[in-house]
Amino acid sequence: MASGDKSIRVDMNSQTAKTEPFPERWQLLGGRALSARILLEEGDPAGDALGSGNVLVMAPGVLSGTSAPTSGRISMGGKSPLTGGIKEANAGGNPGQDLMKLGYRCIIVTGKPKDPSKRYGLEVDAQGVRVVAADAHKGLWNYASCEKLYEKYPKTASFISIGPAGEMQLTGASIACTDEKGRPARHAARGGLGAVMGSKGLKYVAVDAGKLAVRQPAARKEFFGYSKEYTKAYQAGPQMFKFGTSSVVPIANMLNTFPYRNRTEGQSPDVASLDGKRIVESFETRGGGMHNCMTGCIVQCSNVVHDKDGNYKTSALEFETLTLLGANCGIASWEDVADLDRLCDEIGLDTIETGAAIAIYMDSGGMEFGDAAGAKRILREIAEGTELGKAIGNGAVSIGKKRNHKRVPAVKGQAIPAWDPRPLKATGVTYATSPMGADHTAGLIINPGMPATEFARASQESQLVNAVCDSSGFCQFLQPSIEDIAKYYTLYLGRDVTREQVADIGWQCLQDEWEFNRRAGWTPDKDDLPECMKTEGVGPNHVMKFDVPKEIIDAARAQRFAPREELFKLKATG
């Protein structure tokens, strides 16, 4: 780790930026853990998420910018306008790596402009950091905005940006990061953090690391050797994501966690036409294929989807998107979902939140299930700022209230992801108790046969491991264990970092997040799932319901304050 590491502080009240030394006390913190610490120390948990007091943090993982495989992810953090609590949303692409190559461990954005009509950009390069006028990008969709940015900045640059949804401060808005090809296709999507970025008048961040090399570890030979060994072992393994997460569709359908028509069923009759195999089959005649979303990725789970004429359409068309914008809306064709995915990336929207919102609108009689053309029209209305567009763009709870509809599958204001809590009850415990609300990346457990007595511990252990991973810079799909991360940290820093220390980073991250939420006004009664998940079933005879006893959720909540040593055995989980 470079002794000259710095933080970037951006004051949007005055539209100025400066750098300062990265604090020694934060040296082992990156990504989600660093974001949580900054938000707890400097944020305003009780304030308006879209107000001047909210802090927006952009923090690469500790290992981002190094040669460790698939380690370049970045965390966006702030108070969520959806949940009213803390939020971290994680993204791939190249900005996290480029920031770390330049020696910047985080960007901390505070304040907001007096004139809300103005747009600004942040430039980060070897010469320093600057806030610049960006009114020429006002209202531009993400792809057009990034194309315009490449007219100004070198091809070596990467970008963090928001689309019109973020500018309008719609609470379903995402933050986009460009991939290796410069496409704004990797999104920190959950929790509405694009709206937080928009509230600060910040349209984009341009990061140009030029031709800087990767960050150099203290134990250089050993680090590179271990990375080579780790890569070889991974590539010799089962390659679970060889064709991306879209390949999970048939399994999810079998497990009754491929929600159909606003979660009234757990299986879709259109599973064959939404199966990721159809996307893979298209590669032969249309082009596209699998690629790595960031430099140094060995998982390569990102699919590149072309249209019938062989032209690029979108990347990546993920399982969550096929589920929420496809099956959950009764839309049968993966090609229609690809169109919807591209629109969401363009406008800057979370596909999970948006798909849930459209399904609720359909369920309430706003339009027919399966109306793909209508769904595309609504997405364009979001960009235009119509009344209906804003209601959908603000997410599931927003449109549910507008339509006075009772089946709103959301937890703490945030839509439930594809992985359904009725067949996957331990995951439901995560949704109920995680500081992130309904977010599968906070602690997903795909074990439908797990005994109820194990739900609380399994959820909390999964939450800890995922917090550690999101702090390291590694992608969760690489499935690194706590032991793996400890070894990488040891070789990188040149001093012994134990697996216990690494686990403590994750544990403290969760503690910081829970404390933020306590100060934000979260109370134990919020640790629950919506009534429709408890009373409406899926599966044969609709018998699968979220019927987890209150005492189990209480136990998961109580474990927040138990000693870490009693909760986690620290066994390797990779």
Q: How far do the termini sit from each other?
A: 25 Å
Helix content: 25-40%
The CATH C-level name of the largest domain is Alpha Beta
Query: By helix and strand content, what is the structural category?
Result: alpha+beta
Count of folded domains: 3
Query: What percent of residues are in strands?
Result: 5-15%
Radius of gyration: 22 Å
Main β sheet profile? 6 strands, mixed
Physical arrangement of strands within the biggest beta sheet = 2-1-6-3-4-5
Q: Remind me, CATH topology of the largest domain?
A: Aldehyde Ferredoxin Oxidoreductase,  A, domain 1
Q: Shape, please?
A: globular
| Average residue-wise pLDDT | 95
Superfamily at the CATH H level of the largest domain?
Answer: Aldehyde ferredoxin oxidoreductase, N-terminal domain
User: So, CATH architecture of the largest domain?
Assistant: 4-Layer Sandwich
List key phrases describing it.
single chain; 574 residues; alpha+beta; Aldehyde Ferredoxin Oxidoreductase,  A, domain 1; Aldehyde Ferredoxin Oxidoreductase Protein, subunit A, domain 2; six-stranded mixed sheet; 38% helix; disordered C terminus
